[in-house]
Amino acid sequence: MALNSRTPAGFVLCLCLGLFCAFSAHSVSLDGKWSLRNSDGSVAGSGSVPGCVHSALQQLGYIQDPYFRFNDVAYRWIAFDNWTYTTTFNTSEQLRSKQKVVLVLDGVDTVASVQLNGFTLGGTDNMFRSYAFSVRPLLKEAENVLSISLASPVLYASQRRKAHSAYPVPPECPPDVQNGQCHVNFIRKEQSSFSWDWGPSFPTLGLWRGVHLEAFDVLQLIQVSSVPLFDSSASRWSVQVELMVDAVQTSDGLVSVSIPELFSDQTYQSRFLQGRTKNTFILHINTSTEVDLWWPRGHGDQNSYRLRVRGLRDGSVLFSQESKVYFRTVELVQEPVPGSPGLSFFFRINSKPVFLKGSNWIPAHAFQDQVTPDILLNLLHSAADANMNALRVWGGGVYEQDQFYDLCDHMGIMVWQDFMFACAMYPTEADFIQTVRSEVIQQVQRLKSHPSIIIWSGNNENEAALATNWFDIPESHRATYVKDYVTLYVENIRALVQQEDPSRPFLVSSPTNGAESEREGWVASNPYDPHFGDTHFYSYEDDCWDWSTFPRTRFASEFGFQSWPSFSTLKTVSVDDDWSYDSNFSSHRQHHEHGNQQMLRQAALHFHLPNSTDALKRFTHTLYMTQVMQAQCVKAQTEFYRRSQTEIIDGKGRTMGALYWQLNDIWPAPSWSSIEFGGKWKMLHYFAQDFFAAVLPVGFEDDGTLLIYAVSDLSPDLTLRAVVSVHSWSGLDPVCTLRSDLVLVPGGSAVVVLKQEVAALLAGCGRCTRLSCLLTFHLEDGTGVQRGPSNYHFLCSPKDAEGLRKANITAKVQEDESGFSVTLRSDAVAPFVWLDVGNIAGRFSSNGFLMVSADRTVGFTPWRPTSVSQLSTSLSVTSLRDVY
Ligand code: BMA
């Protein structure tokens, strides 16, 4: 294979600017095509590194698209076999002449033995850490053979379970409906790779990150991390800079650290101890210079500075590297709340309380090697375009790649970063703890320079699983599990994180009562208590339009409803036989027990279900209906959380975060996501654009009284009024319009701007009744300028609406400077107007909207070249009355 010299980001490049440079490091990538074979050699060919066995087998033609129909089950055998990746390479004289040569494996998935030229270098057992082996004496000039033999993750997990005979570590297996594998909690790999309630079981194997040789004399700089710290008593910034260095022998040198734009520069005498060590320096920032802060999007710019580090010895440059440093502070405020038992729970960024708006992130593909920069960029752009300012990287997936966090830094998207433990108990054997410790140290060191990460969190739902006894652990055994819980997350993970990163808060779990959980011995009696910490809330049977069923929590970090992806997305993985709601395929894709029925039951509370006699239409209309239901449900709940940010009612409130479950999909299947696999926005994502808008009108009824709140995330105070229009379901023009007084809406608050009994409102509006009319409303300022999106409130379920008839909507596609536009004309009120252009990638400026006037124009931004005629041919327009 060819050898590529590489200079990856974050890697030392010896700059010999006018100085004699004697210590150049030499980096050789071993990425590319390796040979791959299963245990008996019956399956063999080449596989890419980085990559995984499934991707390689598909490329080789051994398997078809693993996402197609029932292939997740058909290809189970792959994860039960052992696989060996082998490469052969030559080395240059220059490389072999270095004092030290290290083989670095950036990511091995997961359990492997590593052999070079017949010698076993060691083993791996954790996908989330890198491995380094010193290999210089083993290297030859030609024909070096590097083999990495991967053990079946499924069999390994099961062996580890058997070896842990003293007591079970539940859950033993996922629910049958997931078609998954057992004991994933015994192996340090992506927990959802053995199946999840939204994802397939593809227990991957492979070299999922790069492989390279690093050769150097004296020493090598491996990683630079920086965390700015603010001393509020002295009003002074400093930057804690850490250099991870590998030194051939203990040696002395000078390290200079500078931020030229802040006129801050310091040089330190340093001793680099032999081997891999961390060297810490504190750079004090010149107090006379104003520092431009990094802000979450919507609150300011994402300013950064260049940080320069150089290592010098005897006039020679040992290393030199530049990276970015961002200044911001973050506090998780848990303090008494006047008028409310419990403690607050909100984030203060740069001393400003910030409401977190966003969603939860899951792995973007079952095969991580297929997550391209374009996919990440598209998903994060979609999050930002929907006015999100935060994402939670959920603990059952992976610590994302560097680019994910770079983009979040750049876009001002705050990240709630879980450690990768989810919905399970975990073992605490010495070797398990040891590998987790390495994982935590490496990940925190890799990620802590990112300002976007505002919190570390130990696990997903494991406190709740223990507290509310998901796994039926007998009371007499509970103490063992609580002890294991505290050992893993508190004594190890929390202790390490606090030692490695003083710049941001750590929470042990999510949901948790935070400080209260700690007081109760880290497992609270009710981690869902709305008076403390964050909550996860799911209720599929309650009417999701009834806001009184939602917890008035301090912080909603998970809530949501399922829907199906669009037909064009499903078509990529199915055939005609599959296209009905009760097909084997539709059941097989649904990994959440009773999920398909729950969606219809929830939809039927307010809508007529699709009843076309044409089976295909009934199916596509049902897909549409599940998206309408999901969008409405998550809208109702998010609006409730946003309007609860200021008030305390019945001792509860001051909600400061709404992160719905879930942003993205891992494959084309029904799930809680707002974006389909492939990037297409579901109706929910279009709704999120509005319900996460910086200024938002929220309308709801409380015991027959209509209330309209103005919610504002903007810093300046606003003076706003509500403008409410009453429309008849049967006609296009408003029946009457009502304006409230102007009300002061302080920056970062939610206040009532209108309160009126519905009966009185209707009485003043001609012949309107609850069944014949609906309300639309918006906010405007004193000069009559609309602030924020328009919104609506239904006075009855649309299934009971009197006079709602089938709308005839015509659409005309045109091209203009900014892309394409679609001009719609409707002859009737039309709820949930949905434009779909099939598999033409791109998005509309808005979609799923209510048409109460005859005309509307929406933009379409394609993600790949298209034309007016392609769009016109593919365009379909559906609204509510079309489905029954
Ligand atoms: C929460 C999440 C996920 C799950 C989701 C939907 O429990 O943490 O584990 O996918 O709910 O059930």
From TrEMBL:
Annotated pathway: Glycan metabolism; N-glycan degradation
Report TM segments. none
Q: Keywords, A to Z?
A: Disulfide bond, Glycoprotein, Glycosidase, Hydrolase, Lysosome, Signal
- The signal peptide, as residue positions, is 1-27
Gene3D superfamilies for the chain: Galactose-binding domain-like, Glycosidases, Immunoglobulins
Q: Which InterPro entries match?
A: Beta-gal/glucu_dom_sf (IPR036156), Beta-mannosidase-like_N2 (IPR054593), Beta-mannosidase_GH2 (IPR050887), Beta-mannosidase_Ig (IPR041625), Galactose-bd-like_sf (IPR008979), GH (IPR017853), Glyco_hydro_2_cat (IPR006103), Ig-like_fold (IPR013783)
- What GO biological process terms does the UniProt entry carry, in alphabetical order? carbohydrate metabolic process; glycoprotein catabolic process
Residue ranges of domain Beta-mannosidase-like galactose-binding in the record:
34-209
Q: Which Pfam families match?
A: Glyco_hydro_2_C, Glyco_hydro_2_N2, Ig_mannosidase, Mannosidase_ig
Cite the Mannosidase Ig/CBM-like domain residue spans from the record: 705-800
What would you give as a GO molecular function for this chain, any one?
beta-mannosidase activity
Q: Which residues belong to any copy of the Glycoside hydrolase family 2 catalytic domain?
A: 347-506
Report if keyword Glycosyltransferase is assigned: no
Outline the extent of the Beta-mannosidase Ig-fold domain.
804-882
According to the UniProt record, one GO cellular component term is: lysosome
The keyword Disulfide bond is annotated on this UniProt entry: yes
- What enzyme category does the UniProt record give? hydrolase
What is the annotated quaternary arrangement, including any partners?
Monomer.
Q: Give the record's family classification.
A: Belongs to the glycosyl hydrolase 2 family.
Designated name of the protein: Beta-mannosidase
Q: Which organism is it from?
A: Sphaeramia orbicularis
